[in-house]
Design a protein that fits this description.
Blueprint (H helix, E strand, L loop, with lengths): L2 H5 L6 H12 L14 H7 L2 H7 L43 E2 L12 E3 L27 H6 L3 H17 L4 E2 L23 H16 L4 E7 L12 E3 L2 H8 L1 H10 L3 E4 L3 E2 L2 E2 L4 H11 L5 E3 L8 H6 L10 H12 L5 H15 L3 H4 L9 H15 L1 E5 L11 E5 L1 H4 L19 H7 L3 E2 L1 H17 L20 H10 L2 E7 L10 H5 L3 H16 L3 E7 L7 H4 L4 E4 L7 H10 L12 E2 L21 E3 L8 H6 L4 E3 L10 E8 L7 E10 L8 E7 L11 E7 L8 E9 L5 E3 L4 E4 L2 E8 L5 E9 L3 E5 L17
Parallel strand pairs: 2-3, 3-4, 4-6, 5-7, 5-17, 6-9, 11-12, 11-13, 13-14, 14-15
Antiparallel strand pairs: 1-2, 7-8, 10-15, 16-18, 19-20, 20-23, 21-22, 21-26, 24-25, 25-28, 26-27
Helix pairs in contact: 4-12, 6-7, 6-15, 7-9, 15-23, 17-23, 19-21
Bound molecules: beta-D-glucopyranose.
């Protein structure tokens, strides 16, 4: 292979070739430093300016706008570049990965592979000219489901399995986990994110990073920061207060950085208070590196930001997927003195420090044979544990296996494993609900299976999935069923299971009609089926196969049971059937609130920004009052509150003991959980603190710790211990640029949800503590009229 090809695979752009030839025209003899043999600093000292610029710009070179689905890599066999939303995809090294860096063989620098994403590795399952092998990956449950496990150890296990696929398929960095806050239920990528709460988000992200990186590959926690919508995602100016930044939108990232040491961070597409995040040194340098001690690399999101020089100056080390114009501009800026080469060198060093950690640099011989079977089991186990039982009147569930189950709803037959876009996974199979029920020993009404099969085949032909896999297909309307047939089935079959499905993804937020709200057809299906089965003294259960929050209050009274299965990955049907049958006792809890109605959502008025239709700015008027922080403080009843989830058994939570009622450095709380029912089960204990609000407003309470019990057999107990430090008592005081724990009385509540508080105790703090003094950064340029609590 000639040097030019190695440098920029497949690109023949004139000015780039000049750089490459120049760069590789450099002789490489024994005296040329080599990465690994020489120090990073020695290698940097030996680099030409052009080589430095090539290293901080990704190798998927293609001018912005022409990338289409290939995200900048040359389309295979010269096919024209498609247009539309861009997600990363390269054909180099690992086809279908999101991108690569540039190799500089003269200095022993290989290209490394960066690949999505949050629900598992996303690469092409097949390769041209390779008919013998496939490269499928495991589709794990979406992050929202993983957060609903409230079990970081389970998330680490998933990370471990994902990392195995990253390593064995030859990728180096997984572009995950994503941990933006669920600010609004319509957020199109909420499924890729964990929660409305930063503690859960941060703990889950740290657990995932620890799992993935245990395999010797890297992660990229993303999208840093305040990237909470898809509308105008590449240009939106997010205007928010420093307090909201610190307490909500930065906090999860801080936890993840400090508890897991991710190899990389991905800056986001949006602006924060007027400037692109990738062009903000206060964010990427002062906060991330100086305050939090982050030692890794920052990369842009794909085509994120506008000004490569501002990005270089802001310590956004790597620009992805990279364009020739960026290389050119960086070289020119150093030459004309507008970019100090020392800043560029620091970024180059961080790229090299990343490269030397990777399996590709270490020469790892990947097998292309990850443990797909074992990983599918992990996917199933996690899915089972993150399914949330929302309703179960008169012990409708678990379902007996006596009679035949009548299964309704398109997605019972064509289940949704995960969302679309870069968070999608090319899996080899997905177990549908009906398959899962059959695998679990249920008899499924075959006449429906046949009718739905034919209907879906026909509809799929009429509404083919768009050519590029990351775009979603138009939703298929529910199959109309004659009411006489429903009545007949209600007479014959044992019970009805109805699935409601939703899919969303990158590039668009969700809609209210026929998405957040059920469509008229869906509501009528639920009501007609439930009424018919009830008339025969039989039950109707709804399965929610969704990636984000929907409205439930207008229809939930019609049915006897509701199981929130989220988008559970490739083992979907098996996991749901395990919970339906009682083989697994549901122990998932909501990590995001289900409101009664959209108008109750604190950001309903400001999302997705102004001007209407094509917003260019969004003002976070809700401040810190997002999710339960709002519903609890403003006394707005949700449909299902944060932390909620039912079980097939019952628990008592008692014996709360505090180590002291006067806070001094820390306080320990212990609590005893007993399984008082008849089935073995796990319970999640949530510790909330309400702080005194003498000088600034505070939410009624905030989650400060949580723990899940082990599987408790009936009649057995477990004592859980929580430690509360001064940091847990502190809020951000903008006027002091400090985190301060105010003196006064604190309320510690132990709950099984944010509204089911089982035990409470108070303690006092005699004198205020400044727990951390930070830099005054991310200052808004305009006045924000924020919610101030009640
Ligand atoms: C997404 C990122 C993703 C990247 C590479 C972007 O469109 O926002 O989350 O990692 O593409 O595929």
């Amino acid at each position: 292979m000639n040097a030019f090809k190695t440098c920029i695979p497949g690109i023949a752009l004139a000015f780039l070739s000049t750089f490459c030839l120049k760069s590789f025209g450099q002789t490489s003899d024994n005296s040329t430093p080599k990465l690994g043999k020489n120090t990073v600093k020695e290698v940097v000292a030996a680099m030409t300016l052009e080589e430095k610029a090539l290293l901080v710009v990704g190798a998927s070179q293609r001018p912005r706008g022409g990338g289409g689905a290939t995200g900048g890599a040359r389309p295979v066999s010269g096919a024209p570049a498609p247009t539309g939303p861009v997600i990363g995809q390269t054909q180099q090294l690992v086809p279908g990965a999101a991108g690569t860096t540039n190799a500089i063989p003269r200095l022993g620098i290989p290209a490394i592979v960066l690949s999505d994403g949050p629900a598992g590795l996303r690469i092409n399952p097949k390769r041209p000219g390779d008919s013998l092998n496939t490269y499928y990956c495991t589709a794990f449950p979406i992050e929202t489901l993983l957060a609903s496990t409230w079990n970081p150890a389970m998330v680490t296990k998933v990370g471990h399995a994902m990392g195995n696929e990253v390593l064995e398929y030859g990728a180096d960095v997984l572009l995950a986990p994503a941990l933006n806050i669920h600010r609004n239920p319509l957020g199109g990528r909420n499924f890729e994110y964990y929660s409305e709460d930063p503690l859960i988000s941060g703990k889950m992200a740290a657990a995932m990073v620890n799992g993935v990186q245990s395999q010797g590959v890297g992660t990229s926690i993303k999208h840093f920061m305040a990237n909470n919508q898809e509308t105008s995602r590449n240009t939106i100016n997010t205007i928010l207060s420093e307090r909201a930044s610190r307490e909500l939108y930065l906090r999860g990232f801080k936890i993840a950085v400090q508890e897991s040491d991710p190899w990389t961070v991905m800056s986001s597409y949006n602006k924060v208070n007027g400037t692109y995040t990738s062009e903000r040194a206060d964010l990427l340098y002062s906060i991330l590196r100086k305050e939090w001690g982050f030692k890794g690399l920052v990369m842009t999101d794909w085509f994120g930001g506008r000004d490569p020089i501002a990005q270089m100056k802001s310590a956004n080390d790597l620009l992805m997927p990279g364009s020739p114009a960026q290389v050119q501009k960086i070289v020119a800026a150093v030459k004309d003195g507008s970019l100090d080469v020392k800043l560029l060198d620091a970024n180059v060093e961080r790229v090299l420090n990343l490269i030397i950690r990777t399996p590709r640099f270490k020469g790892y011989k990947y097998s292309n044979k990850p443990s797909l079977k074992e990983n599918a089991q992990v996917s199933r186990e996690a899915a089972t544990e993150g399914i949330v039982l929302l309703k179960n009147t008169n012990h409708t569930l678990p379902l007996t296996k006596k009679g035949t189950v009548a299964v309704f709803g398109n997605t019972s037959y064509d289940i949704i494993a995960g969302g679309t876009g870069s968070g999608d996974v090319n899996r080899s199979y997905t177990i549908s609900l009906v398959q899962g029920l059959s695998n679990s020993g249920y008899k499924v009404d075959a006449s429906f299976a046949k009718a739905y099969g034919a209907y879906l085949d026909e509809q799929i032909k009429l509404h083919p999935r768009p050519a590029r896999s990351f775009q979603k297909r138009d939703p298929i309307a529910e199959m109309p069923i004659d009411s006489a047939i429903i009545l007949q089935k209600a007479a014959e079959d044992e019970c009805a299971v109805i699935t409601i499905g939703r899919i969303s993804g990158e590039g668009a937020d969700r809609k209210l009609d026929d998405d957040f709200y059920l469509s008229a057809k869906e509501k009528s299906m639920i009501k007609t089926v439930a009424d018919a089965f009830h008339a025969k003294g039989k039950k109707a259960i709804v399965i929610l196969n969704i990636g984000g929050v929907i409205e439930t209050v207008s229809w939930r009274d019609n049915v006897d049971g509701i199981l929130l299965a989220w988008q559970p990955g490739e083992e979907a049907g098996n996991a749901i059937a395990e919970v339906l049958s009682g083989k697994a006792n549901p122990s998932g809890k909501l990590a995001t609130t289900f409101p009664v109605d959209y108008k109750d959502v604190p950001s309903a008025k400001s999302f997705p920004g102004t001007p209407e239709g094509k917003p260019d700015q969004v003002v976070y008027e809700d401040g810190i009052y997002v999710g339960y922080r709002y519903y609890d403080t403003y006394k707005v009843n949700p449909a299902y509150e944060f932390g909620f989830g039912l079980s097939y058994t019952t628990f008592t939570v008692g014996d709360l003991k505090l180590s002291s009622t006067a806070f001094n450095n820390h306080i320990t709380a212990t609590v005893k959980v007993t399984n008082t029912g008849k089935a073995a089960g796990k319970q999640v204990i949530q510790l909330y603190i309400g702080a005194p609000a003498k000088t600034i407003d505070k939410p009624e309470k905030e989650l400060k710790a949580f723990a899940k019990t082990k599987l408790l057999q009936p009649g057995t107990s477990q004592t859980l211990t929580f430690t509360i430090n001064a940091n847990d008592l502190a809020s951000y005081y903008t006027d002091k640029s400090s985190w301060v724990a105010e003196e006064g009385k604190y309320t510690l509540s132990i709950g099984t949800s944010s509204r089911q508080i089982k035990q409470m105790a108070n303690f006092t703090l005699a004198k205020p503590i400044v727990t951390e003094k930070v830099n005054n950064e991310l200052v808004p340029q305009v006045t924000i009229t924020e919610f101030k609590g009640k």
